[in-house]
Amino acid sequence: VKVKIPFGNKCLDAIFSVPEKELTHGVILTHGAGGDMNFPHLVSLAAYLASHGVLCLRFTCKGLNVAYRAKAYKTVVEYLKLSDDYKLSGVFLAGRSMGSRAAASVIRQLSQDGDDDFIQGLVCLSYPLHRPKLQSTLRDEDLLFIRCPVLFVSGSADEMCEKQLLEGVASKMKASKKIHWIDKANHGMAVKGRTTDDIMEEINTQVFSWLRENIELEHK
């Protein structure tokens, strides 16, 4: 279902992937610095989640400023929260690369405002912890403030997220967290000798099983 979400004096293009059965939870998903919501990994994940009963709303926001992207993401969260078509009890924020930074920023803002009851967790695909070869400056400030569950899916050879550095940040986080490493994958989740479909299947099943665990925990 294609929708346009009002954002300032323009609109954000977005697509709902809707499950056939009754739904309780959703995922909002956005892209990295390049591309848009039709980036193949996002399309694949959205279809997989919807086929397993999780609503997925993915959207496009062009712009290389993280604060601007976070503002757009927050607008999408509000849109879904107030939606009459889909009554959800909670939502997980997810993004790829820069999109995951924007998602983390939104969760930090909403928790500081005391308005994060709707947010159930964060999924970071290829979180860009640092610029390539600039490991001395970490983009970890939002992660350290987050209290909801966090899943990282990163390549063990990601040039923007050195393995030891992410594990070090995770050890300092207050939130419950899990890191799933895609062996030998780079920032674009490509692995020599493996097909994109094969890698996406690994990512999709990891994300869904983590979501299911956290949704079940909430209902206990």
TrEMBL record:
SUPFAM superfamilies, per database record: alpha/beta-Hydrolases
InterPro entries in UniProt = AB_hydrolase_fold, KANL3/Tex30_Abhydrolase, NSL3/Tex30
Q: What superkingdom does the record give? A: Eukaryota
Which Pfam families does the record match to this protein? Abhydrolase_11
Please state every residue range assigned to the domain named KANL3/Tex30 alpha/beta hydrolase-like.
27-207
Supply the name of the protein: Testis-expressed sequence 30 protein
Q: Which organism is it from?
A: Struthio camelus australis
